[in-house]
Amino acid sequence: MTSLALSRVRFLPFALGLGTFLAAALIVEILIRAGLINRFIVPMPSQIVASFERVIVEEHMFERFVMTFKECLAAAALLAIFGISIGAAMHRFELLRRATETWVAAMASAPTVLMYPLFLVIFGRSATTIVMMGFVAGLPAVILKTIEGLSSTRRVLLNVGRSFKLTPLQMFLKIQLPSALPTIFTGFKLGLIFALINVVGVEFLINFGGLGQLINDLAERYDLPGTYAAICFVILVSVIFFIVIEWIERWLTRTD
Amino acid sequence: MSVAPMPSPRAAPIPKPDGILVVDDIVKRFPTPDGVITAVDHVSFAVRPGEFLSVIGPSGCGKSTLFNIIGGLVTGFDGSVTVAGERIDGPHASVGMVFQEESTFPWRTVIENVAFPLEIAGMPKTQRLEKAMHFIALVGLNGFENRHPVELSGGMRQRVSLARTLASEPKILLMDEPFAALDEQTRLLLGDKVLQIQQTLKQTTLLITHNITEAVQLSDRILVMTYRPGRTKRVVEIDLPRPRSSEIVGSDAFGHYVAQVWADLREEATRGLDEAESRAREKK
Ligand SMILES: Nc1ncnc2c1ncn2[C@@H]1O[C@H](COP(=O)(O)OP(=O)(O)O)[C@@H](O)[C@H]1O
Ligand SMILES: [Mg+2]
Q1: Chain A CB within 8 Å of residue B73 CB
Q2: Which residues are bridge partners to B31 per DSSP?
Q3: pLDDT of residue B186
Q4: Do B105 and A178 touch (CB under 8 A)?
Q5: Is A45-252 in CATH node 1.10.3720.10?
Q6: Which residues of chain A are modeled with pLDDT < 50?
Q7: Mapping DSSP to helix (H, G, I), strand (E, B) and coil, where does residue A15 land?
Q8: How far is A215 from A219, CA to CA, in rounded Å?
Q9: ipTM of the complex
């Protein structure tokens, strides 16, 4: 394949994605202008684009963006540290796992966001509450996937480890963990989705801090183009997160 | 059944004349819901230093159980396994195992796979990579050292496993149907590779297999096992000249040995097949 053809192969999906997005925006724009969609409920895409500058300059977008980003980062770090080690402990200690696995699984589908009053009481109306809510929301997914990954290590690989007389720690670090890593990453990404949703959601609910609060403010002022523009920045946070994580994942599990 | 002593010109003088690996009267039973299964029943044999011994038997006759017992992965059996006079009761550095299933680490490159036992032993990095390269060359995988297992064929991956086990420099190489998943041509060619390695390292080897051609091609002696309970049926000496290669497969002597082993094995294989069929019928 020539390098031109190769770059076309890489470029095409991106161009198609962007094109579809722009076309959808254009269709919405036309439908609103034609009066088929109520312009007081859905703002025109062109209005949203036009409101970007206003939102960025007047609403301290940069500070808010950084704040939300930091909260997400803190929640992600907690998820990685505690999610994986709790999962590993539950995998290691059969009794612990059998005693708690059902609870963790139940928690995974529970609407933990409703626990925010409790967290408000414990941590106050602060960034800590927001980070903890994000962390709690993502935790079950990371724990469950960590257990799943560790327990599906192929038996023969464990036997290889035994035949080479690995210590339990070596067995974990050199065989079980690397073998579980792809599954753990799946859980981590899933957990992170819940965490991001909850961080912004709780900011919105308790009217504190970053992008969630801004969305709350703008919606109350009935500044719909501004609200949607702020939502675009929420999406930007999650896009940045996922790009970074996929990059880390590829680096850790590279097989090329 | 005991194994008749045989004068071997290659046997070096060692304290225990019997062999470097001695399997003495092993009995292994598994309790199952349908009663106790005797997987291995009073099996005894000895492997002499530098010897290539194959254990052959139909599927389900207890070969893998024996493999795991000698490798120290299965405990709770009667009898004893000794390596160079030392009794085995768990995994042992003197015994290197190559498993039937694909067992390379997919997250490691070929060289990192092969260097694995050296890494565990705490050998410094440059030294262990150098040593790993030596064993990679030995199994004929030069040029592939930085590839990952997914990029290799099944036969190449099995050679990576073999090189990894050889890198730990075991006194006895123990292999459980290592080429069972490969096609016949690849198997014969890999057999050549094994013969070469055997020639170079004078590696004492115990091969477990259900493949007659493979057993005759590679072995000094073949131990035929019976189907359930797994006992020693006969020991066949393979008096083919060394160095050998897969070309020997066409010779009359080769055909003669294959026929001889098959005559013993046939009865057992038939019994195994019959039992499996009647079990299947009962389940209906
Ligand atoms: N862990 C176990 N529990 C119960 N039965 C077993 C176990 N391992 C092996 N067996 C039984 O022992 C017999 C011998 O098995 P195996 O050693 O795997 O035979 P082979 O490798 O010759 O095919 C089989 O009938 C098998 O079902
Ligand atoms: Mg087997």
Answers
A1: yes
A2: B36
A3: 83
A4: yes
A5: yes
A6: 1
A7: helix
A8: 6
A9: 0.87
> Which distant-in-sequence residues (6+ apart) come within 8 Å of A119 by Cβ?
A129, A132, A133, A202
Distance CA B157, CA B163 (A): 10
- Domain limits of chain A? 1-42, 45-252
On chain B, the residues whose CB falls within 8 A of the CB of A256 are 148
CB hemisphere CA count around A174 (13 angstroms): 22
Rg (CA), chain B: 19
- Subunit contact A156:B93, Cβ cutoff 8 A: no
Q: How far apart are CA A165 and CA B120, in angstroms?
A: 9
- A10 CB near a chain B CB, below 8 Å? no
pLDDT tens for chain B, 284 residues: list them: 444 444 444 444 444 456 889 999 999 999 989 888 888 888 999 999 999 999 998 888 889 999 999 999 998 899 999 998 889 889 999 999 999 999 999 999 999 999 999 999 999 999 999 999 999 999 999 999 999 999 999 999 999 999 999 999 999 999 999 988 888 888 888 888 888 888 888 899 999 998 898 899 999 999 998 887 778 888 888 888 888 887 888 888 888 888 888 888 888 778 778 888 888 887 66
Q: Report if pTM > 0.80.
A: yes
Work out the angle at residue B161's Cα, subtended by the Cα atoms of residues B159 and B164, and round it to the nearest 5 degrees.
110
Domains identified in chain B and CATH numbers:
11-94+170-283 (3.40.50.300)
Residues 6+ apart with CB under 8 A from B52: B198, B204, B205, B207, B218, B219, B220, B221
Residues 6+ apart with CB under 8 A from A29: A44, A45, A46
Q: Which of B107, B115, B116 is nearest to B134 (CA)?
A: B115
DSSP A42: S
- Chain B residue with minimal CA distance to A158? B103
> What percent of chain B is modeled with pLDDT above 70?
93
